[in-house]
Amino acid sequence: MTEINPFSVGEVPFGTGELSFILGPCVVESYEHASMMARSIKEICERVGVKFVYKSSFDKANRSSIESFRGDGMDTGLDVLRRVKAEVGVPVITDIHEPWQAEPAAEVADILQIPAFLCRQTDLLVAAAKTGKAVNVKKGQFLAPWDAKNIVEKLQAAGCEKILLTERGASFGYNNLVVDLRSFPIMRSFGVPVVFDVTHSLQLPGGLGKATDGQAQYIEHFARAGVACGVDAVFMEVHNDPSKAPSDGPNQLPLARLEPLLTKLKKINAVIQVS
Q1: Mean of the per-residue pLDDT values for the chain?
Q2: Contacts by 169-174, CB closer than 8 A, 24 or more apart
Q3: Which of 40, 82, 247, 262 lies deepest, with the highest CB count within 10 Å?
Q4: Rounded distance, CA 168 to CA 195, Å?
Q5: Using CA atoms, how far apart are residues 230 and 181, in angstroms rounded to an integer?
Q6: What Cα–Cα distance (Å) separates residue 24 from each residue in 117, 194, 241, 268?
């Protein structure tokens, strides 16, 4: 069995056998919305008995259309995340898209996230690694799982000791993704914890013409399968009303469905750990 390099972000463990979560809305919409979502998710996680990192992006640079909502900018978005982190008492993760964003984002975020389409960008990976923060890299939809070893080696060469690799689906023809369950043990063989991004794996990229479509009705099925395969953490975008979400609404998990799903996933992980 591959030895994983475990670490914690605040009180949230990765790679220890305890299932952790990365949860939150796709993009920072407002301070009020972010605060409400973070508090609601925290209450649910405390009832279930699991730990999570709050996720939200200050900018969605990779959008289908020039008309798509991207967020209110880095300064505003990071300020919202800073307030949520301090007031709700949760660690936070957010994306960066260019090397110069690494340092200011690291002043707020506990984990820096590299978007899937940018996973091979060496300068971006190195900049994130040099901040000393944990780095979560989404494996590109175009990348074989064994090729993700190069990502790990780039980060390690730049001094990063806290690395997460995330599976978020692979391109399957046009406007569709498929998840190869082999990717979980393959990427764990590199010695780093592996995250399953359930909700992005259910995107139908460009499926609405000027926006991405999705199949949120399969979230529970995918999540159960991933945990049964032994992932270290589950990533899900969660929204109180996905139909009104300005970004990725069709594949986000409604907040009302979160607690029963977390309860089931915790039970599945408990079985996996003793088998």
Answers
A1: 94
A2: 169/141, 169/197, 169/200, 169/201, 169/202, 169/203, 170/141, 170/142, 170/143, 171/141, 171/142, 171/205
A3: 262
A4: 9
A5: 10
A6: 21, 19, 12, 22
Q: What is the pLDDT of residues 52-93, one digit of tens each?
A: 999 999 987 766 667 666 777 899 999 999 999 999 999 999
**pTM of this prediction exceeds 0.85:** yes
Is 109 a residue whose pLDDT tops 80? yes
**Backbone angles phi and psi of 218, in degrees to 5:** -105, 5
Alpha carbon distance 184, 226 (integer Å):
8
217: which residues sit within 8 A by CB, 6+ positions away? none
Residue 191 φ/ψ, nearest 5 degrees = 90, 15
**Which three-class secondary structure state does DSSP give residue 23?**
strand
Q: Quick check: 137 and 151 in contact, CB under 8 A?
A: yes
Domains (ranges, CATH) in the chain? 15-274 (3.20.20.70)
More confident residue, 267 or 246: 267
Dihedral sign, CA of 261, 27, 96, 90? negative
Joined tokens for residue 199:
């909700």
DSSP reduced 3-state for 67: coil
> What is the rounded average pLDDT of the residues 184-193?
98
Angle at 255 between CA 14 and CA 37, to 5 degrees: 75
> Which DSSP string corresponds to 181-222?
TTHHHHHHTTTS-EEEEHHHHTEETTTTSSS-EE-GGGHHHH
Q: What is the pLDDT of residues 223-266, one digit of tens each?
A: 999 999 999 999 999 999 999 999 888 999 999 999 999 999 99
d(CA 11, CA 51): 7
| 135 three-class SS | strand
